[in-house]
Amino acid sequence: MSSPAIAPQTESARMHIAPDFAGMELLTARYVHHRFAPHVHDTFVVALIEQGSERFRCRRAEGVANAGSIIVIPPAEVHTGQSGGESGWSYRALYPAPQKLGELMAELRDGDARLPVFDRVVFDDPALFRALQGLHAVLIACRDPLLRSCAWREAMTPLLRYAGVVEPATGREDAAVRRAQELLRADFEAALTLDDLARAVGLSPWHLNRVFSRSVGLPPHAWRNQWRLAQAKRLLRGGLSPAEAAASLGFADQSHLHRLFKRAFGVTPGGYLQSKNVQDRIEPCR
Length: 286
Prior knowledge:
The protein is α+β, with helices and mostly antiparallel strands.
């Protein structure tokens, strides 16, 4: 009897572009035999090794990055890459332009936009790894500008700690948070970005995201979603269909409302429509 065929070791690579982040490239790839020749980027490289291992060489270091590792390479630094084992490696990579990191540095350092200098190339930080994975996924799949801008700061700020960046102290800023909530309630088309909100309340985007989260327990995009879900309940009880409620509240589509509603309340909008008043079901009191 012949032995079973061995599945080929396939390679794949998909590149996405985030135009609202200065054209940042987002790569999702799996390589087995591919070897990167010595090359440079005009952006930072933030690579997340998801499976296998990558052997690399750059000016400051040479070694193997295993699954769960984060690799950070600055602009213009020559580097290589190849599999660190027979089975290859899978990874995601973000390529933020110096301009974008400079803007975030300025928010964190009172206008000082000097680029970060990281103390090493490979980092082992599971929480940061998951945050950067989430950012990569959001920038590929989600169109919500507020979620995109919040996710960027929430994931990149802890990375910058490895460049010695200390997050500034923040107060409560209650008036700014209340004003931001008013603007989010009025944002029926879900078009506001974190930068828009920050300009309107007179804070930096990073500062607003931090004080808002501390004050209400959720970042702006998540708080807005919870407010919209509460309004969706009201509209559903008033006779609107899930599709009509989704459209009137600025959800991307009915499935977007369905997904968030079920996650928050444990039932779908359709299931919520079928709920009955308990007074219609119980026996009269005797």
